[in-house]
Write a structure and sequence with these properties.
209 residues, single chain, alpha/beta
Protein backbone atom coordinates (compact mmCIF):
# COMPACT_ATOMS: atom_id res chain seq x y z
CA UNK A 1 0.00 0.00 0.00
CA UNK A 2 1.31 3.42 -0.98
CA UNK A 3 0.89 5.49 2.18
CA UNK A 4 0.68 9.29 2.25
CA UNK A 5 1.45 10.83 5.65
CA UNK A 6 0.28 14.40 6.21
CA UNK A 7 1.43 16.39 9.22
CA UNK A 8 -0.66 19.29 10.51
CA UNK A 9 1.11 21.50 13.06
CA UNK A 10 0.50 24.96 14.50
CA UNK A 11 0.06 26.74 17.80
CA UNK A 12 -2.67 26.03 20.31
CA UNK A 13 -6.04 27.24 19.00
CA UNK A 14 -4.67 27.87 15.50
CA UNK A 15 -7.41 25.88 13.73
CA UNK A 16 -5.69 22.50 13.29
CA UNK A 17 -8.73 20.63 14.60
CA UNK A 18 -11.13 22.52 12.33
CA UNK A 19 -8.97 21.68 9.33
CA UNK A 20 -8.84 18.04 10.42
CA UNK A 21 -12.62 17.87 10.93
CA UNK A 22 -13.23 19.31 7.47
CA UNK A 23 -10.94 16.70 5.92
CA UNK A 24 -12.52 13.91 7.97
CA UNK A 25 -15.97 15.12 6.92
CA UNK A 26 -14.91 14.74 3.31
CA UNK A 27 -12.93 11.49 3.48
CA UNK A 28 -14.18 9.85 6.68
CA UNK A 29 -12.85 6.40 7.45
CA UNK A 30 -10.50 6.42 4.47
CA UNK A 31 -8.07 8.38 6.67
CA UNK A 32 -6.30 7.32 9.87
CA UNK A 33 -5.78 10.21 12.30
CA UNK A 34 -3.05 10.34 14.94
CA UNK A 35 -3.06 13.11 17.54
CA UNK A 36 0.17 14.01 19.34
CA UNK A 37 -1.96 15.02 22.37
CA UNK A 38 -2.73 11.35 23.03
CA UNK A 39 0.98 10.70 23.49
CA UNK A 40 1.42 12.95 26.53
CA UNK A 41 3.46 10.99 29.06
CA UNK A 42 1.61 9.24 31.89
CA UNK A 43 2.20 10.71 35.36
CA UNK A 44 0.26 8.34 37.59
CA UNK A 45 3.07 8.58 40.15
CA UNK A 46 2.22 12.25 40.82
CA UNK A 47 -0.84 13.62 42.66
CA UNK A 48 -3.23 15.81 40.64
CA UNK A 49 -1.91 19.03 42.22
CA UNK A 50 1.62 18.20 41.02
CA UNK A 51 0.41 17.18 37.56
CA UNK A 52 -1.25 20.59 37.22
CA UNK A 53 2.14 22.28 37.58
CA UNK A 54 3.93 20.35 34.82
CA UNK A 55 4.97 21.99 31.56
CA UNK A 56 2.78 20.41 28.87
CA UNK A 57 4.08 22.58 26.05
CA UNK A 58 7.65 21.38 25.76
CA UNK A 59 8.84 18.41 23.66
CA UNK A 60 9.76 16.34 26.74
CA UNK A 61 6.07 16.28 27.79
CA UNK A 62 5.32 13.86 24.94
CA UNK A 63 6.25 10.22 24.42
CA UNK A 64 7.03 11.04 20.80
CA UNK A 65 9.24 7.97 20.38
CA UNK A 66 6.12 5.78 20.87
CA UNK A 67 4.23 7.83 18.28
CA UNK A 68 7.08 7.35 15.78
CA UNK A 69 6.97 3.56 16.38
CA UNK A 70 3.19 3.51 15.90
CA UNK A 71 3.43 5.58 12.72
CA UNK A 72 6.11 3.28 11.33
CA UNK A 73 3.90 0.27 12.11
CA UNK A 74 0.90 1.86 10.36
CA UNK A 75 3.05 2.58 7.32
CA UNK A 76 3.99 -1.10 7.24
CA UNK A 77 0.30 -2.02 7.21
CA UNK A 78 0.04 -3.01 10.89
CA UNK A 79 -2.67 -1.79 13.26
CA UNK A 80 -1.74 -0.17 16.62
CA UNK A 81 -3.37 0.71 19.95
CA UNK A 82 -2.82 4.38 20.61
CA UNK A 83 -2.98 5.72 24.20
CA UNK A 84 -5.75 8.13 25.23
CA UNK A 85 -5.04 11.24 27.29
CA UNK A 86 -7.59 12.71 29.72
CA UNK A 87 -7.06 16.47 29.96
CA UNK A 88 -9.50 16.84 32.86
CA UNK A 89 -7.12 14.91 35.15
CA UNK A 90 -3.80 15.68 33.37
CA UNK A 91 -3.04 12.00 32.86
CA UNK A 92 -3.43 9.08 30.49
CA UNK A 93 -6.66 7.18 30.80
CA UNK A 94 -6.79 3.37 30.83
CA UNK A 95 -8.40 3.37 27.37
CA UNK A 96 -6.77 2.97 23.97
CA UNK A 97 -7.80 3.85 20.41
CA UNK A 98 -7.37 1.06 17.89
CA UNK A 99 -5.92 2.53 14.69
CA UNK A 100 -6.07 0.65 11.40
CA UNK A 101 -3.59 1.31 8.59
CA UNK A 102 -5.00 3.38 5.70
CA UNK A 103 -3.44 4.84 2.57
CA UNK A 104 -3.70 8.33 4.13
CA UNK A 105 -2.45 8.94 7.67
CA UNK A 106 -2.89 12.34 9.24
CA UNK A 107 -0.70 13.38 12.17
CA UNK A 108 -1.56 16.51 14.14
CA UNK A 109 -0.13 18.41 17.09
CA UNK A 110 1.61 21.58 18.16
CA UNK A 111 5.12 20.09 18.22
CA UNK A 112 5.10 17.41 15.52
CA UNK A 113 7.57 19.31 13.29
CA UNK A 114 9.97 19.88 16.20
CA UNK A 115 10.95 16.19 16.33
CA UNK A 116 13.12 15.12 13.37
CA UNK A 117 12.32 11.39 13.59
CA UNK A 118 8.59 12.16 13.47
CA UNK A 119 8.98 14.87 10.84
CA UNK A 120 10.92 12.55 8.56
CA UNK A 121 7.91 10.19 8.43
CA UNK A 122 5.76 12.90 6.79
CA UNK A 123 5.26 13.37 3.06
CA UNK A 124 3.42 16.69 3.34
CA UNK A 125 3.87 19.12 6.24
CA UNK A 126 1.19 21.77 6.80
CA UNK A 127 1.57 24.55 9.38
CA UNK A 128 -1.60 26.34 10.45
CA UNK A 129 -0.75 29.97 11.22
CA UNK A 130 -3.20 32.15 13.14
CA UNK A 131 -2.93 35.45 15.04
CA UNK A 132 -1.90 34.97 18.70
CA UNK A 133 -4.92 36.87 20.11
CA UNK A 134 -7.35 34.66 18.20
CA UNK A 135 -5.51 31.53 19.35
CA UNK A 136 -5.67 32.62 23.01
CA UNK A 137 -9.42 33.33 22.79
CA UNK A 138 -10.02 29.90 21.26
CA UNK A 139 -7.90 28.20 23.92
CA UNK A 140 -9.79 29.89 26.77
CA UNK A 141 -13.12 28.83 25.25
CA UNK A 142 -11.99 25.23 24.71
CA UNK A 143 -10.29 24.70 28.06
CA UNK A 144 -13.14 26.21 30.09
CA UNK A 145 -15.94 24.45 28.17
CA UNK A 146 -14.35 21.08 27.41
CA UNK A 147 -11.55 20.54 29.91
CA UNK A 148 -13.08 21.88 33.11
CA UNK A 149 -10.55 24.67 33.66
CA UNK A 150 -11.05 28.12 35.15
CA UNK A 151 -10.25 31.22 33.07
CA UNK A 152 -7.58 32.15 35.61
CA UNK A 153 -5.83 28.77 35.32
CA UNK A 154 -5.91 28.94 31.50
CA UNK A 155 -4.35 32.42 31.50
CA UNK A 156 -1.71 31.44 34.06
CA UNK A 157 -0.74 28.38 32.02
CA UNK A 158 -0.68 30.46 28.84
CA UNK A 159 1.66 33.05 30.33
CA UNK A 160 3.99 30.64 32.12
CA UNK A 161 4.41 27.84 29.58
CA UNK A 162 2.18 28.01 26.49
CA UNK A 163 3.42 31.31 25.03
CA UNK A 164 7.13 30.87 25.95
CA UNK A 165 7.15 27.32 24.54
CA UNK A 166 5.30 28.46 21.41
CA UNK A 167 7.98 31.08 20.80
CA UNK A 168 10.79 28.63 21.56
CA UNK A 169 9.58 25.49 19.78
CA UNK A 170 6.34 25.80 17.79
CA UNK A 171 6.95 28.99 15.80
CA UNK A 172 10.52 28.01 14.74
CA UNK A 173 9.21 24.63 13.48
CA UNK A 174 7.18 26.50 10.85
CA UNK A 175 10.31 26.57 8.68
CA UNK A 176 9.91 22.81 8.06
CA UNK A 177 6.43 23.23 6.55
CA UNK A 178 5.73 22.60 2.88
CA UNK A 179 2.56 24.66 3.13
CA UNK A 180 1.58 27.43 5.58
CA UNK A 181 -2.19 27.80 5.92
CA UNK A 182 -3.56 31.00 7.42
CA UNK A 183 -6.62 30.59 9.66
CA UNK A 184 -6.74 26.80 9.46
CA UNK A 185 -10.01 25.15 8.44
CA UNK A 186 -11.55 28.54 7.61
CA UNK A 187 -9.12 28.98 4.71
CA UNK A 188 -11.29 27.46 2.00
CA UNK A 189 -8.74 27.91 -0.81
CA UNK A 190 -6.07 25.94 1.09
CA UNK A 191 -8.67 23.38 2.19
CA UNK A 192 -9.68 22.80 -1.42
CA UNK A 193 -6.04 22.31 -2.47
CA UNK A 194 -5.42 19.78 0.32
CA UNK A 195 -8.66 17.90 -0.44
CA UNK A 196 -7.71 17.63 -4.11
CA UNK A 197 -4.30 16.22 -3.20
CA UNK A 198 -5.86 13.63 -0.88
CA UNK A 199 -8.52 12.71 -3.43
CA UNK A 200 -5.85 12.13 -6.07
CA UNK A 201 -3.86 9.89 -3.77
CA UNK A 202 -6.90 7.88 -2.68
CA UNK A 203 -8.03 7.35 -6.28
CA UNK A 204 -4.54 6.20 -7.29
CA UNK A 205 -4.65 3.69 -4.45
CA UNK A 206 -8.12 2.40 -5.22
CA UNK A 207 -9.86 3.97 -2.22
CA UNK A 208 -13.17 5.58 -3.20
CA UNK A 209 -16.01 7.10 -1.26
Amino acid sequence: MDVLVIGIAGGTGSGKTTLMKNLMGEFGDRITVMSHDNYYRAHSDLPYEERCKLNYDEPAAFETELMVKHLEALRRGESVDCPVYDFTVHNRSDQVIHLEPKSVIMVEGILIFENKALRDQMDIKIFVDTDADIRLCRRIKRDVNKRGRSIESVLTQYQTTVKPMHDQYVEPSKKFADLVVLEGGKNLVALDMIMNRLQRHLEQNGSHA
